[in-house]
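Private note to self, pasted from the team thread so I don't lose it. Backbone tokens:
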């Protein structure tokens, strides 16, 4: 099998993937990802044992045991560009032989659950509640850089683009479904489409000193319906997580704490307490 070139798969001198600084034995098959590196210890403090701690840049990894099972928690930082790094390097650590730089014949399947924060886009979704993403709606364009088949929900994506009269000069929106296996394990949560923005301010309809180009973005998302699905919340990672997860053959799911409601303009008084509740 042909070896992957040094410039394609960049490794550390210790033969670990470059950004995450991990190899296959440093990471479990069941992984919780969080955006904030400080949130890693909020999760791992519930482990019965932590046997691996690795920090590099914004990427912090703790691996240990919870209820007798090996589990990892990893911080990704903010945005789909970081998710691109994290998903590709997690997969590389597990499914590429880093010594020979060749792809393993037998692939490891990872279960990756993102615990995040987001803003609600429907009036009936209360601040300090939780939303599970049945789909990720990406405005970031990342999926369009990869060749893939049968991953993007073309009909739903096109329906949203038409409904929103999406500007031609922006990346085409794309919608990808969550892992059905993981969705079925968390039936107690409210569900909906989670929209993923490429930034925090204008890309999410915020205005400080520069006006956004889509002035009615929230209304366009709030009123979208497709086969019983509606857009429930806004964040910055899920679309890339779902796309790359499916493309690489892994199970992925996002569950978000709602720390603000963009429609009612209410904000959580203590979002850290809400995040702690989500972790538990």
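Design output:
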């Amino acid at each position: 099998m042909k070896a992957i070139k040094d410039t394609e798969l960049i490794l550390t001198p210790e033969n670990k993937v470059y950004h995450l600084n991990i190899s296959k034995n440093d990471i479990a098959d069941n992984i919780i990802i969080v955006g904030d590196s400080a949130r890693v210890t909020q999760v791992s403090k519930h482990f019965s044992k932590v046997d691996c701690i690795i920090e590099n840049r914004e990427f912090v990894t703790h691996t240990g045991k919870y209820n007798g099972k090996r589990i990892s928690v990893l911080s990704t930082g903010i945005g789909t560009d970081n998710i691109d790094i994290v998903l590709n390097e997690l997969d590389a650590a597990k499914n590429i032989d880093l010594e020979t730089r060749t792809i393993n014949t037998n692939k490891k399947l990872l279960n990756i659950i993102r615990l995040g924060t987001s803003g609600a886009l429907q009036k009936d979704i209360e601040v300090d509640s939780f939303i599970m993403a049945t789909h990720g709606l990406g405005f970031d364009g990342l999926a369009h850089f990869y060749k893939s088949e049968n991953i993007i929900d073309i009909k739903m994506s096109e329906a949203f683009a038409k409904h929103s009269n999406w500007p031609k000069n922006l990346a085409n929106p794309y919608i990808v479904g969550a892992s059905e296996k993981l969705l079925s394990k968390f039936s107690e949560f409210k569900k909906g489409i989670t929209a993923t923005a490429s930034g925090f301010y204008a890309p999410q309809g915020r205005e400080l000193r520069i006006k956004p180009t889509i002035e009615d973005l929230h209304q366009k998302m709030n009123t979208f319906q497709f086969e019983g699905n509606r857009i429930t919340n806004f964040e910055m990672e899920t679309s890339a997580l779902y796309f790359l997860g499916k493309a690489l053959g892994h199970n992925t799911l996002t569950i978000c704490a709602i720390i603000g409601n963009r429609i009612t303009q209410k904000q959580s008084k203590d979002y850290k307490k809400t995040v702690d509740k989500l972790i538990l």
